[in-house]
């Protein structure tokens, strides 16, 4: 169910639990700013989620409240993951769902990295 991004951060969300080690995941990458892991319901041959280590509900929340150093660090982390997965040459797609209209389901900012196949135009329903 899509979330309301105006709600306060819920530290019991699934990604917060993964960050605390309370739930298992298939870790792909970790640094000071981000944690990346394979999606449990992949929508492409490569489908990785990258989440900031700090508590942000959404992209809007993150870009409004995070210090510039954290925003830059997180964005560099996303790029590092794509290079480590060797997606930089063939290409990839990044996606961030934001709020109910964007169909965001987990109230913790997350960037989807899709790769491993050719992507075409987006089809919106």
Query: Could you give a short account of the major beta sheet?
Result: 5 strands, antiparallel
How helix-rich are the residues, as a percent range?
A: 10-25%
The quaternary structure here is single chain
Please tally the β strands and state the result. Answer: 5
Radius of gyration: 14 Å
Strand coverage percent: 15-25%
Could you say which structural class the secondary elements and strand pairing correspond to?
A: alpha+beta
Round the mean pLDDT to the nearest integer and report it: 94
Low-pLDDT windows of residues:
none
Shape annotation: globular
Strand and helix order: HEEEHHEE
Task: Give a written overview of the molecule.
The protein starts with 13 loop residues before the first helix and ends in a 10-residue tail after the last strand. Strands 1-2-3-5-4 form a five-stranded antiparallel β-sheet, with helices on one face. The relative contact order is 0.25. Helices cover 24% and strands 19% of the residues. It has helices at residues 14-19, 59-65, 68-84, and strands at residues 27-30, 34-38, 46-52, 93-95, 111-115. The protein has 125 residues and is of the alpha+beta class. The chain is built from three helices and five strands, in the order αβββααββ. The model has no long low-confidence stretch (mean pLDDT 94). It is globular.
């Amino acid at each position: 169910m899509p979330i309301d991004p105006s709600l306060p951060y819920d530290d019991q969300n699934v990604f917060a639990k993964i960050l605390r080690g309370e739930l298992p995941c298939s870790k792909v990458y970790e640094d000071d700013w981000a944690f990346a892991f394979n999606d449990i319901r992949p929508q492409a041959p490569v489908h990785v989620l990258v989440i900031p280590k700090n508590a942000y509900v959404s992209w809007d929340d993150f870009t409004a409240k995070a210090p510039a150093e954290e925003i830059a660090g997180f964005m560099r982390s996303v790029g590092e993951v794509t290079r480590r997965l060797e997606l930089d040459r063939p290409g990839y797609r990044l996606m961030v769902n934001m709020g109910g209209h964007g169909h965001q389901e987990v109230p913790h900012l997350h960037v989807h990295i899709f790769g491993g196949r050719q992507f075409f135009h987006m089809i919106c329903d």
